[in-house]
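Trying the structure run again after the queue cleared.
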Amino acid sequence: MITVWFIVIPLAGGLAAWAAGRTSDRAARWISLAAMGLDLALALLVWAESPAHVEIVGGGAWLAQVQWPWIPQLGASFHLAMDGLSLLLVTLTALLGLVSVAASWTGIRERVGFFHGNLLVILAGITGVFLATDLLLFYAFWELMLVPMYFLIDIWGHEKRHDAAVKFFLFTQLGGLAMLLAILGLYFIHGRATGEYTFDYARLLGTPLAPSTAMLLMLGFLAAFLVKLPAVPLHTWLPDAHTEAPTGGSVILAGLLLKTGAYGLIRFAVPLFPQAAERFAAAGMVLGAIGILYGAVLAFAQTDLKRLVAYTSISHLGFVLLGVFAWNRLALQGAVMQMICHGISTGALFIVAGVIQDRLGTRDMGRMGGLWAVAPRLGAVGMLFAMASLGLPGLGNFVAEFLTLLGAYEVSLPITAAAAGGLVLATVYSLWLIYRVFHGKAREGWRTPDLSAREMAVFVVLIAAIVWLGLFPQPVLDTAGGAIDGLFKTAPATVAAACPRRLMRGHARTKFGTRPVRPRAWRRAPEARQPSPYRRRLNTARRPASVGV
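Done. Tokens:
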């Protein structure tokens, strides 16, 4: 029953904030803050009282679950279940929800109740995505996030908000429809094969599928998950949406909405279609490496502060895609850590960008410079999270990216080497951001107040979280560990075992890693060392005629 409360609390809080906003903006803010604070306390309570090692499959030991009839004629049920992976992401949702409400405290002055109502409905939908184990229910929560986020961008966004909102809606809606078709295809194929028509995740695992059918269905899921992640080349909606969204919306979008795509890859795409995922693994890892490099290069080219941070999201979430399709324990732990650490560090950078825009009235870094002298607390906070973004040791992002690269190295050395180049580029754009915004020449002589006590309290929570994850990540790794072990039971080990053989073809393992193997003639089998047809004819012409005895 506790899983239901994780969804009911933000839903009820959103409706109450919307109603209270008609008479008091202050009441709407406090109701929203209390609702997300209660959700966070509930998540921390479950985390403190529950064992870390829980499995991802229905037959495993779920931390909590509830299953009620929903549409029994179709085999659909209201089935929510929580394991270690879900618990981590639900906790992140509650934390960033609390932060987004606090960050919007003074920035939103119009239709405050409606704003907080939409914000909390989005959070309820995201929580439902992380808990639903019925595919039809999962799709319902997936779509629940869409409309309120559209309102958030279109009503409270910036100059080009309408175009950005429409682009966001079209991309995510088309991806969601492709996933719905794949869900229905899997539903009917499973029903015809077993006689049981169901949307239950645990029962759909292991459905017998022809290779071409499995690939087609998996691509339907990938259409939704890779758009939401986002992966190159399905990323074009993200920079516009991030740039035009209000600060609270940017925090939710970067910190949580993008994680629903990563979660979908881990929970559904690979376990439901392990053989298809095996064949797609090489392409998935290549897409991850491309996203890492592409996002980093374009981030360096930006002059708009929020747009720069948006492109860093594309780069950082490329590590998640790389880790998922590397499909081993280290890589998956790195992917989960990256989901959490990226949510905290990038969410904080969007708050920094929002604070600067509110004070200066611009996002153009060409007009900034010298802000450290007038707002040292803001400069220190901005520098710390920029350092987290580049993967500084001692902060959470370093642990996440190191584990991901270590796991990917076991699968493909060339792809890992290319992805590691993203760390160098991250250093470049992070230092460039710090110099242009906080140091350098004060071009326009800004005089702006420093962070207030409320703003500093928000950043202190995020700083404590990212430092804790960097210095003592073991509780998070342990909590995710049981779910990852369950993943290897759900998706057969052949997925993880076959990827190295395919991606490392032409390489030999040594105790130091891998080395290329050149197919020299003397290493070939005797039957492979036959001369070419031309050489055989030449040898025959030169051979002396046999002499009879």
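Confidence is low (pLDDT under 50) at residues 52-60, 493-529, 532-539, 541-549. Worth checking whether this holds up in the mutant runs.
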